[in-house]
Design brief:
The protein is of the alpha/beta class and about 150 residues long. The protein has helices at about 20-30, 45-50, 65-75, 95-100, 115-135, and strands at about 10-15, 35-40, 55-60, 85, 105-110.
Length: about 150
Amino acid sequence: MRSPKREYSQFLIIDDDPGIAKFLVTYLRQRGHTCHALTDGFETASWLSEHDCEVAIVDLKMPKVDGISLISFMRETNPALPIVVFTGVGYDEEQMHAALHAGANGYVSKNLPIEQLYCVLARVLATCQQRKRVTSNGQQPVLAGAAA
């Protein structure tokens, strides 16, 4: 599988399961990316105020803060940050729509192969980078499927 066009990307993982967080950090670092993991969603605000990341990966079901509220907060504080949900609840249409409505850019079940998450991350990152290039050139972004 090809990596995004750049040599590396900076990821932030927010998942209360230390095993999942460690697995994702290892997986992404093996692909040449930088990565940091938080196992407490309440640490997100302070971490983001001191660090940069290009994509956040968020679990929905966490004990201290729910993922939907966290996504809404992240979207308010950083509207351009790509956010991908990586959740153990599987394909729950109501949860998926709530996450997307809160501002998530993608949704992947933990039950799928890890390569599926990586494909979504690469696609979301490429889309966001394309939007930045288009808007920095003074052009209006074109919506996919829209007639030119």
